[in-house]
């Protein structure tokens, strides 16, 4: 199979939902011998401290039903060595949790829950395409091989190029289909007033100036700014603005 980027992109252009778009990709990856497809997207990939942020979109096809809960609610995403590796790479890579592979040597006790889960469900070998997006967002498309460990890694390596084309064509359309809420960082939740005050602060207004602009008391504005700083883990207003920019909660 040799995927034509333009033709496949035109095919995806007719899809109207992210699920339908991903189903088209699965139909293509099925022909390559992959059984499971996983896609995740985060408008901001890491926290201000550098830790992976739980994605706002995490979709699976032909995967265990509890995978979403474990990865998005139980912290497995942060300790997933595949995701940790993808965040540091710009090229697709093949990985395996089989006992006789070099990957096994890089695993630590912190990765143990993920490694056991992957092996227990027969998801031991896959191919991941990291997608570092122009707006600063981050996504990965992962396809997991349907086959025995002995031939699975070779099969995945053979399809690196195909998956690269499929992933970029998919993400191009997915970026158009993402819902507004999915484009927002959910790692930090500020109220509308907190964001508004922080936005004006980012533009250089003092608390007095913000109060005059919003027709609120200076004490109220300070309360909102302190609340925003606390939620952002900032020690002062300047740091709150910097962190707000990092999480795309404010713009300048």
From TrEMBL:
Q: Does the keyword Transcription regulation apply?
A: yes
An individual GO BP term = regulation of DNA-templated transcription
Xref: InterPro entries: Sig_transdc_resp-reg_C-effctor (IPR016032), TF_LuxR_autoind-bd_dom (IPR005143), TF_LuxR_autoind-bd_dom_sf (IPR036693), Tscrpt_reg_LuxR_C (IPR000792), WH-like_DNA-bd_sf (IPR036388)
Q: Which domain of life is it from?
A: Bacteria
Q: Where are the transmembrane segments?
A: none
CDD domains per record: LuxR_C_like
Q: Which PROSITE patterns match?
A: HTH_LUXR_2 (PS50043)
**Native species:** Pseudomonas extremorientalis
Q: Which SUPFAM superfamilies match?
A: C-terminal effector domain of the bipartite response regulators, Pheromone-binding domain of LuxR-like quorum-sensing transcription factors
| Domain HTH luxR-type, chain residue ranges per copy | 183-248
Q: Does the keyword Transcription regulation apply?
A: yes
Name of protein: LuxR family transcriptional regulator
GO terms for MF: DNA binding
The alphabetized UniProt keywords are: DNA-binding, Transcription, Transcription regulation
